[in-house]
Amino acid sequence: MIELAESTPAQGPKIVVIGGGSGQPVILKGLKSYQADLTAIITVADDGGSSGTLRDYLNIIPPGDIRNVIAVLADVSSDLIDLFQYRFKKEDEMLAGHALGNLIIAAIAEKKQDIYGGVQQLCQLMQVDGHVYPVAKEPLVLHARFKDGSELSGEAEITAAHNAIDRIWVTPQADSANQVAQAPTAVVDAILAADEIVLGPGSLYTSILPNLVVPNVAAAMKMTRAKVTYIANIMTQKGETDGYSEADHVRVINEHLGAQVVDAVLMNTGVVPEDYIDWHRWNEVSHQVRFDPDQVRKEGAVPILGDFLALRENGAFHDGDLVAKLIMQIAGTPADDAGGE
Questions:
Q1: How far apart are alpha carbons 25 and 65 in whole angstroms?
Q2: What pTM was computed for the model?
Q3: Domain 1-43+183-341: which CATH class?
Q4: Per-domain residue ranges for the chain?
Q5: CA–CA separation, 206 vs 286, rounded Å?
Q6: HSE-CB of 136 using CA atoms within 13 angstroms
Q7: Rounded-to-integer distance, Cα 113 and Cα 256, Å
Q8: Section 111-127 average pLDDT
Q9: Is the pLDDT assigned to residue 138 strictly greater than 70?
Q10: Which of 92, 142, 190, 287 is least enclosed, having the fewest CB within 10 Å?
């Protein structure tokens, strides 16, 4: 049984947040204000934008999601963080669209000839409060099989297809010496040692699952005694998850891992006002995710309900502070106290 505790252990729980995209930093920012041992595990299958360009030219893991997590967890001046996050203007020719932090990550990776070690060194320089681990030491290729039987490779192309996905998997790039995707030992160790593992929020098929389907990550997720909390998305993703409920998201995660791994689901009860969303700006979202706590229970998870909605910039987001508070309360319950309400 999962119950919300009033306090957490004095030394702070070990919390691992797995994902990518814009949702992961929101949750980490909220968690940063608590006493906790934080680890972020980040997808390396992104191949669009500045990250995709640097990935192609320099054959490194995409730096964008890593940059955003480092910026949130860094304990340096706001001026330095603003500089780290600065994105060159579109008229800046070859630098157009690149964030300075992406270039710094690329430079430190080249200098050390090791992207994983470079990220760890940069975390030290930025005085990161926690651990930042790319899920692999090399860029991975995301593959999708759609429900119509067709297949595509590449995160950007899969997202742009707006097609209903049946299954995804990842592989190393064609020029890799490895035949199977593999996470570093530190990633597996963090999952096995965690008190709580948080999935999301983020795109189900392109931010969360690309981490979980790495074979040794999948194995660790099935072995860990950590409580696994899924932060249900507020909006569906156009084409990919149209009509999905929170339970459908949980079912897909469990099916990809081959076991019921999700213990609790944070489910938003707030309603997005009609005509609030700027559909041109947020062109990947479709409709509000269907609310169905009974089906979540049937997937073996405890529904935890609350109004987690934060409306800003004509978009629907999670209230990171409120979600972080609940994550900490879940982490404070005994590890073997799961399975019901």
A1: 9
A2: 0.90
A3: alpha beta
A4: 1-43+183-341, 49-134
A5: 16
A6: 29
A7: 33
A8: 91
A9: yes
A10: 92
